[in-house]
Each structure stands twice: as C-alpha cells, then as structure tokens.
Specification:
By secondary structure, this protein is of the alpha+beta class. The protein has three helices and seven strands; from the N terminus they run ββαβαββαββ. It has two domains: 33 residues, no CATH class; 82 residues, 2-Layer Sandwich (Alpha-Beta Plaits). The strands form two sheets. The chain has a five-stranded antiparallel sheet with strand order 4-5-3-7-6. Strands 1-2 form a two-stranded antiparallel sheet. A hairpin with a 2-residue loop joins β6 and β7. The model has no long low-confidence stretch (mean pLDDT 84).
Amino acid sequence: MNTHSTAAGLSLATNLIPDGDNLKIVSKFVSTEAKTSIQAHIPKSRSYLKIVDVPYPVTKEVTSSLTAALELSVGLAAQPRVMCNSRHSDTTTVWFNIWDSQSGSLLKKLVNQYITICNSRCVIRLAKA
C-alpha cells in the first residue's frame, strides 16, 4: 500500500477496490490521526449524457423536477443544461453530467433508457464531452 500527497489531500493506492466497510475504516483511522473529520472515497469520473426530444418550452418546474429525479437516482456532477434544437423546433435537448465509476458502469445502464417528460417519451443518449 502506497500513500501520496495530492492537491486535494492524500491518495492511498491499494491492490483491491475497497468496499464501504474498508472506506469507513480508513476514514476513522485517518480522522483519528489527523484530529479532524476525513472522508475516504473511491475516485470517480464524469460521464456525459443527453435527453433528446424533450418537449419545448421547458418550464422551471420541469427543470427542477428533472434535476431532483436525476440527483436522487444518479448523482449529478453539474446542473442540467437545456438547448432548443432549432429556432422552429418544438423539442429541446437536455444535457447532463453524472458522477460515475471509472469504467462507466452507470453510463452503460442509462444509455438508451426511456423517460417520460410532460407526457412525451424521451430517450437518454451518450453525449460527447
């Protein structure tokens, strides 16, 4: 096991992926030694997604309920962004970023899933960073 100092704190290299119990042990040990509260976590990556064919106009109520639903289920890395598809279009695209594992396991589960927004069936697609 190796420990390195980083700009964000300490990095602990292990030969296995720690589970929740392992992270609690590390957090408790380091917190005791440092005499301050420390939270251990596994590094995460951002995944970029979009919801296509969302009905226009997108009201503040739609945006806030969508944000709440996404935050509750996947953990947003930033606020969703809404972009009208064209000047004369009646649909928009909602772009959003999520915290994901480095392998992108959550992204793989979400891509091509359908959700209903304002009685319209919308699909989640992969977005390019």
